[in-house]
Amino acid sequence: xxxxxxxxxxxxxxxxxxxxxxxxxxxxxxxxxxxxxxxxxxxxxxxxxxxxxxxxxxxxxxxxxxxxxxxxxxxxxxxxxxxxxxxxxxxxxxx
Length: 95
Hints:
It is rod-shaped and about 75 Å long. Helix 2 (about 40-50) packs across helix 3. By secondary structure, it is α+β, with helices and mostly antiparallel strands. It has 3 helices and 4 strands. The protein has a 4-stranded antiparallel β-sheet, with no helix packed on it. The chain has one domain (about 20-95). The chain has helices at about 1-15, 40-50, 75-85, and strands at about 20-25, 50-55, 60-65, 90-95.
């Protein structure tokens, strides 16, 4: 009986080590290489560069979310989130 429990704990430990789970935190970087853009575009670039995102994943599912921040320019922050396609959280099943 003790041998079976030891083997079961070992299998659970090894499966936990090799399972695909993690959290990735990242930001966007919009490069402004033109000098003659409008003021609104410049504010959108500032807001896009300030946003942070989190991707939480495991073997069964993935979840993407935009982290909360206080925007400098609220309207341009909403437009920037649409520009980088992060205007809503997303959930994906990995079956």
